[in-house]
Specification:
The protein is an alpha/beta fold and 783 residues long. Among the domains are: 4-89, Alpha-Beta Plaits (2-Layer Sandwich), CATH 3.30.70; 188-373, DHBP synthase (Alpha-Beta Complex); 540-681, Tetracycline Repressor, domain 2 (Orthogonal Bundle), CATH 1.10.357. It has 22 helices and 33 strands. The strands form 5 sheets. The chain has a 10-stranded mixed beta sheet, with helices on both faces. A hairpin with a 2-residue loop joins strand 23 (521-530) and strand 24.
Length: 783
Amino acid sequence: MALEGRRIEVRGTVQGVGFRPWVYRVACEEGVRGRVRNHARGVTIEAFGSPSELAAFLLRIESEHPPAAEVCAVRAEAIPAEAAVGFEIVASRDEGERRVSIPADLATCPDCLREVFDPADRRYRYPFTNCTNCGPRYTIARDVPYDRRATTMAAFEMCPQCRREYGDPADRRFHAQPNACPDCGPRLRVIGDVPAASASASSDDALAQAVAALRAGQIVAIKGLGGYHVACDACSAACVRRLRERKQRDEKPFAVMVRDLAEARRVAFVSLEEERLLVSIERPIVLLQRQPQAPLAREVAPGNPLVGVMLAYTPLHHLLLEAFGGPLVMTSGNLSDEPMAAGDDEAVERLSGIADLFLAHDRAIENRCDDSVARVIAGVPTLLRRSRGYVPRAIPLARPVARPVLACGGQLKNAFCLAAGDSAWLGPHLGDLDNLEACRAFDEQVERLQRFLGVRPELIAHDLHPDYYSTGYARRRPEALKVAVQHHHAHVAALAAERGLDGPVLGLAWDGTGYGTDGAAWGGELLRVDGARCERLATLRPLRLAGSDEAIRQVWRIALAALDDAFDGAPPLESLALFDGVADRDVSVVRQMIAKGLHTPLAHGAGRWFDALGALGLARARSSYEGQVALEWNLVAEAVGRVGTEAEPYPFAWLEGSGVAQADLRGLVRGAALELAEGVAAGCVSARFHETMAEVAAQMVRRAGLEHASLPVLLTGGCFQNERLVEGVLRRLAGRRVLRHRLVPPGDGGIALGQVLVADALARGEAGMMDDGGRRVAMSREA
């Protein structure tokens, strides 16, 4: 039978996940000859055989793949037949257009874990055991294609046994780029004031010293996959308090790491969907309802019934937790609001005031990558922070971008995005760009991902806010056209992109603050979005923020502004517990600021209403971290039922005279304040508040009119991380197509993806205008 040839290109996450050895085995099973290689865009196969052999081979390539691989596209073309002998894996080529196919870092697989705890195995208790199905990937990559020479493992020469595994297509370590063993691979070492700390005799000695320190109540900095964690005994109140003091983190919850699912169930309730998240290869931190009898110290998450739990995801973590014998606080190695430390010298310099001991190793971290965070919201697993385990996995685009785009994201929870062709890549979570370290990390990561892609952006998108670091960065880049995208327009476009929509949508974009096209702070918006076109259909009547950002920290100021507005300047402050702890003089000063319009910007954000009513109901004058009051206000409502159908909404009205319909919530404020003054339980008031906000959102959609009745409704923005609000909106919009985020954060960590889509549409000439600075600005008009 005549031979034929096929060149098959496979794109997606197909490097570093055992794809080539899998192709080798499939080819041998189907009798196909030829070769497979990595290239900068993915994997290329040159296959030769009979038509039936090639057809069977191609069908398996299209329909099967290794567990950690993600195949985005398979393209085959005929090539001249070649009398190849057998099938082989050949060296990579670095040529032509680049596309990142480096996989994300993968949790330790069951096979490797068995080896680590098997005394008869040569990798017994080796903290860096891995194979093609698990281990470090993105965090050690220096360039593409993803080969050992282009990773930080290039510093370790494989021993003869590891080399045999690496070269054997039948072995699960065949071409596992981080492959190593105790004889040839990375080793642990301890840095600190302990005997033999600087030159431990073995990894086991270093591990034992770290465990002894933890048992003695000390704080240990531990080098992980994407950076340093800071760990301590999660069951010791004194240890956790000490960590809070040193880390300058007053009340924001700490994450907890446990050895396995059974231990996770001892500290929290775990549903089937939550279990799937916990045991997934990405191993995110999962927010769970804490068990009443959990042994965790209250200080892990003070005043919060939720706890962030993650399972051990490296051999080092498994060994550490097995030896320690209980859950550990495992929080990012940083001071509050800084990026996590990644280099050893950097960690010692930045964390010496926090950690008593450093458990380090000699495998360098090339790309810092913090832990991802997820939660099941109204039955849907939702990423709240997209980083380790997910980055740099590509997000497919329904419509390829016309030119490469860099989107710089926002100021808070920053994650930038690069797009080329039919794919977009969100960078790792970088946190708030409010300090020099975070800004340096932003610059470094943008440049690195551009290098991996091998492209320079021709469009650079940024937020409208003129004072964001990301906006300034975009303006400083001289080589590309700049595109300003309104914050909430980007939120809606991000969800549309994630769900593969290419057409008009209605978007409820509810968050705390975003710079509006009129200069006011938006955040309670209903928008009609179609590419670069954005029409503002409805919003919330604004509140005054006395002191601007200071009001977001001192939330009693927002509550006072709402009360004075609702009660015409004469609210019953003496009957509200919130104001027992606020000085009369401070109340007087804030009222004067509002009356004179001094540093009191208008804010339409739904998050500010959560702050105002949460401050009132919880009698909490200040917020120690972003979103704290809204979260606690949501959780206190749980005492009156999950869904809250029995809670009657407070009254509210609609104002039509300003060109955009505004929901007037003064009736809500009056009703809630009077009930609180009469002694009604905060949980009941919170339940009614949430039902009111859900009704406002639903009415915004219904009032949009018949011309919008067929459009999908997108729920986006940080407020839709609130489960009770989401449930209330879904119940009221039953029958409509309502879409939510899954793999792109609903908060500001996802807006860069939306900026990409809007910038690309604007560049195609769909809509837009020029501002005085010569930038292109996406069109956003009043209804």
